[in-house]
Amino acid sequence: MSTFVDTSAFYALLDRDDTFHEAAKAVWRRLIEQDETLATSNYVLLESAALAQNRLGIQAVKAFHEDILPVVHPEWINASTHLNAISALLTAARRNLSLVDCTSFEVMRRLGIHRVFTFDEHFRDQGFQILNNER
Fold it and tell me: pLDDT, tens digit, for every residue of 93-103?
């Protein structure tokens, strides 16, 4: 089975002071031990790297790329997926829903992925199963 990994999970893994750090480590360990296929998008990678660099510094970006990403399969966003995500974002008209979230929903639906490692409730709102050790 495949699991999509969201920015909130990546960030919680990197930041020892994050509220969800321990839960993220436990889920990550379980996913790796179960040899789970882990997917994400290049938009999530960009968002995660920018967030880590801004909040934690360049060493966090290095750790992200060297220690976490080697086991994750990125899905590269094409023009069609991007336009569908923009349409979904504009239709939703919600300030706290991001283009990256909408793109992730599109990718997950296209790939038939139903589970997501995240701490972002927007995924549950879209009908996806959240893995985060909190539920």
Answer: 888 899 999 99
